[in-house]
């Protein structure tokens, strides 16, 4: 991820969307998209700054690995919740929300936040169909 571009979105000096990651083609198809690249828009960064002030900008280092290795749970025809446990940088859980445009020609990271253990368990109890499980999440669920 281009951290300078991310800082530009954060400060308002960049407006063009930032590419975050290319997701699994199976996940992209399940969301009705015919592209795999997920972008972060300036609008989403502004929304995140307003509603999730506690999330440090450095946490976005985990966004790519979250989208690549996380567990995808479909919560709508063009959207999915992504759950990921980071054990390298922050030692916490992340929840991302990915949405496809109606035409399926773009994918966006619409939300990204840190979660506590109980928040993760609550998300895992929701009856969303799993598009793609995460090996890390399976191990954690078996240990609980």
Task: Describe the model.
- The structure is a single chain.
- The protein is α+β, with helices and mostly antiparallel strands.
- 35% of the residues lie in helices and 29% in strands.
- The model has no long low-confidence stretch (mean pLDDT 91).
Please render the helix and strand layout as text:
Elements: H1 3-11, E1 18-22, H2 25-30, E2 37-40, H3 42-51, H4 63-69, E3 71-76, E4 79-85, E5 93-100, E6 107-115, H5 117-125, E7 130-132, H6 135-143
Parallel strand pairs: 2-6
Antiparallel strand pairs: 1-2, 3-4, 3-7, 4-5, 5-6
End-to-end distance: 33 Å
Gross morphology is: globular
Approximate helicity band: 25-40%
In this structure, how is the largest beta sheet organized?
7 strands, mixed
Query: Number of DSSP strands?
Result: 7
Question: What is the strand arrangement across the widest sheet?
Answer: 1-2-6-5-4-3-7
Mean pLDDT: 91
Spans of at least 5 consecutive residues whose pLDDT stays below 50 are none
Structural class estimated from helices and strands = alpha+beta
Please write the string of helix (H) and strand (E) elements. Answer: HEHEHHEEEEHEH
- SS element count, helices: 6
Radius of gyration of CA atoms, rounded to a whole number: 15 Å
Could you tell me the strand content as a percent range? Answer: 25-35%
Characteristics:
6 helices, alpha+beta, single chain, 144 residues, 35% helix
Summarize the structure.
The chain has 144 residues and is α+β, with helices and mostly antiparallel strands. Helices cover 35% and strands 29% of the residues. It is globular.
């Amino acid at each position: 991820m281009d951290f300078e571009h991310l800082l530009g979105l954060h400060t308002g000096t960049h407006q063009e969307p930032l590419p975050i990651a290319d997701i699994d083609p199976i996940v992209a198809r399940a969301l009705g998209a015919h592209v795999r690249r997920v972008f972060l828009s300036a609008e989403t960064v502004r929304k995140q700054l307003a509603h999730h002030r506690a999330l440090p900008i450095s946490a976005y280092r985990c966004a790519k690995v979250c989208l690549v290795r996380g567990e995808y749970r479909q919560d709508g025809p063009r959207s999915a919740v992504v759950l990921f446990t980071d054990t390298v940088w922050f030692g916490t859980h992340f929840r991302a929300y990915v949405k496809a445009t109606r035409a399926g020609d773009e994918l966006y990271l619409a939300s990204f936040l840190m979660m506590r253990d109980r928040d993760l368990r609550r998300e895992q109890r929701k009856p969303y169909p799993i598009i793609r499980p995460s090996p890390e999440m399976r191990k954690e669920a078996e240990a609980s």
